[in-house]
Amino acid sequence: MNKVCASAAEAVADIPDGASLAVGGFGLSGIPDVLVRALHARGASGLQIVSNNCGVDGRGLGVLLADGRIARVTGSYVGENKEFARQYLSGELEVELVPQGTLAERLRAGGAGIPAFYTPAGVGTQVARGGLPWRYAADGSVALASPPKETRDFHGRPHVLEHGITTDFALVRAWRGDRHGNLVFRRSAANFNPLAAMAGRITVAEVEELVETGGLRPDEVHLPGIYVQRVVALTPAQAADKHIEKRTVRA
């Protein structure tokens, strides 16, 4: 039951080229930065990423993106990453943009064993009709577009069918965790990390504070260890190394 790995490098050592990964975080809040950098150092490429956003230039998933290690992104926000936008518009990167709430539920559904669900989000738009550019050609034309999705009326209101998401691996960051993989998330880091962790067949969690088994009360656990296969304990310096995506101060 002891799921603690000796290092981040050991925890990601078996992630192959072309693997699909659900990655937690919201902006730069709660991103598994240490695991992402370990994966970058490992050299894996052709990765298929599912994440709310793709980091920023030089931080988070942006590190993998800058070296051309990512082949496809399923997310809801391009954000402040200029390289992300450049690769997408130039046809180097395939991108499936998903409404944010739908993305969250697709991850949760996949983790819960629910293959698909209906939602009103996206009805009447290209999300349902199809035609969203997934990949551009070098000349700026659309090389690959999203297909139309099944729709159905419930109580007189149209809904679109969305599929649950599961991935080969998941990388997440937690505030606290124990050796069994039970995790506690803090503030904004609780947005996508639990959902990404549920969706991964093999989930790796970096934790800012590792406690012994029994050190977490059952009622404070946000994600039970059944969803987590590997735990990496961060050093105090790694735990404190947090960046702000956009700082705003008074004049």
UniProtKB/TrEMBL annotation:
InterPro entries: 3-oxoacid_CoA-transf_A, CoA_trans_fam_I, CoA_transf_BS, NagB/RpiA_transferase-like. Gene3D superfamilies: Glutaconate Coenzyme A-transferase. One of its GO terms (molecular function) is CoA-transferase activity. It comes from the Bacteria. It holds the Pfam family CoA_trans. Keywords: Transferase. Belongs to the 3-oxoacid CoA-transferase subunit A family. This is Succinyl-CoA--3-ketoacid-CoA transferase.
